[in-house]
Design brief:
The chain has 12 helices and 21 strands. The chain is of the alpha/beta class. The strands form 4 sheets. It has a 7-stranded mixed β-sheet with strand order 2-7-6-5-1-3-4, with no helix packed on it. Strand 13 and strand 14 form a beta hairpin. Helix 3 crosses helix 5 and helix 7 packs parallel to helix 8. The longest helix has 18 residues. The chain is globular.
């Protein structure tokens, strides 16, 4: 018997884990068995009374004693244990450096099936790549430099920080590694927020990448999350098919990526809108970078208000793209989010010419696919439109979906014809 603490679940709480769910919540734990620090042997206690240190490796068991996996405990978080392996703890912790290097190599090899060395893509997608809490974006600049942007969003990966960084160095040979651990989720994990260069600090934080034949300046230090949303790459290319010779509205544009794809495809006019002036400044920078100023412009404004104004002014578009931020980050706010999503989609449907194309997205995990398409149906009813769904899409191949962990299937993207 090894000396790692043993977490025993309440009756029937193991089902989700057996289906692939990688978390254990505090209210699912029956009791803990651990070795006493005074050498008096094994003790049994409740989660709150046990002396197991946060960040320690633990083994998870059913109430009946069936082994489920090894994880990292963190009683500061509601997600008390994040599971890192289905093997016993002594096997996992025998050589953590090799353990995490294998995880990084496995993820990297999957990406090589879809992307070239000159592409930018998500290298590690947290739990879906079996590295809970870790996000790694691999940006390749137009000069061929590989820059990694990393986020250690949970204690379960932060405790292995040095091993993981060493593995990333060995597998990817990056020119630079930039840390974006300025997300508030770290506070919920008992971790401090921080950001900055881990390697390559002599360079600037704006890098130029190439995606779908278009150049983008990406601000890895100040842009949202990791600076750029790689998950929509394939959807941007799919949307551009409908844009040749068309008037296009690109709402919630962020870096202007959907709009730039539309302009490259030969759109007659593209208006890219964002409420953030910093985002619009980057849009205009990217427009200039690709010499698309004659057909595309960035506009700073509230999309909700702008859609109302366009409707009042009887403006019409051939293609409208809606790629808003998540309107809900909790299950409690779904109904409020439903109203927000419905409003922008309803107004977009009214603004489209007959047979116009609506590309509409939601990146909120809590706003699931059934709810998303139900919202579109009711938006169509209230706008007195008929809607043909031409494609149902999600995130790219660099965002694998882990069965049993629905949060990994977060992005919905519908391409619809409005009649």
């Amino acid at each position: 018997m090894n000396n790692y603490a043993r977490i025993f679940l309440k009756p029937k709480e193991e089902r989700e884990i057996q289906q692939g769910f990688p978390w254990v919540f505090d209210n699912e734990i029956q009791h803990v068995k651990y070795t006493a620090s005074d050498g008096s042997g094994w003790k049994e206690a409740s989660l709150s009374e046990c002396s197991v240190k946060d960040g320690s490796g633990v083994e998870i068991f059913t109430k009946a004693g069936g082994f489920l996996g090894t994880g990292i405990i963190n009683r500061t978080s509601k997600i008390t244990i994040r599971i890192i392996s289905q093997e016993h703890a002594d096997k996992v912790f025998e050589d953590t450096k090799s353990f995490w290097e294998k995880r990084i190599r496995d993820a990297d090899s999957i990406r090589h099936l879809h992307y070239s060395k000159n592409d930018s893509y998500r290298l590690i997608f947290g739990e879906a790549d079996f590295v809970p809490g870790l996000i790694v974006e691999r940006f390749c600049s137009i000069t061929g430099d590989v820059i990694l942007v990393v986020q250690f969003l949970s204690l379960s990966c932060d405790v292995f920080r040095n091993d993981i960084l060493a593995a990333l160095e060995k597998v990817c040979s990056p020119s630079g590694i930039y840390e974006r651990d300025d997300a508030d989720i770290r506070e919920k994990e008992g971790l401090t927020e921080k950001s900055g260069w881990i390697k390559g600090g002599d360079r600037g934080t704006i890098i130029t990448i190439l995606e779908n034949g278009i150049q983008y300046d990406v601000d890895i230090a100040h842009g949202q999350k990791t600076g750029y949303f790689l998950d929509q790459k394939d959807n941007r290319r799919a949307a551009s098919v409908f844009c040749k010779g068309k008037r296009v509205l690109d709402a919630f544009t962020h870096t202007g990526a959907f709009g730039l794809n539309a302009a490259k495809a030969g759109a007659h006019e593209v208006i890219s809108v964002d409420i953030s002036q910093e985002a619009v400044d980057m849009v205009n920078r990217n427009i200039a970078l690709n010499c698309m100023g004659s057909m595309m412009k960035g506009v700073c404004g509230d999309v909700f208000e702008l859609l109302k104004k366009y409707e009042a002014d009887d403006e019409k578009f051939d293609v409208i793209i809606l790629d808003p931020p998540a309107f809900t980050k909790s299950a409690k706010m779904i109904q409020k989010a439903y109203g927000g999503y419905k409003e922008i989609n309803l107004r977009a449907m009214r603004l489209l010419n007959e047979g116009g194309i609506l590309i509409t997205c939601s990146c909120s995990y809590f706003f699931d696919s059934n709810t998303f398409y139900d919202m579109l149906m009711h938006a169509a009813m209230d706008s007195h439109k008929r809607v043909q769904i031409l494609e149902k899409r999600g995130a790219g191949s660099d965002h694998p979906v882990l069965l049993g962990y629905q949060k990994s299937e977060y992005l919905k993207c519908a391409i619809a014809r409005i009649l």
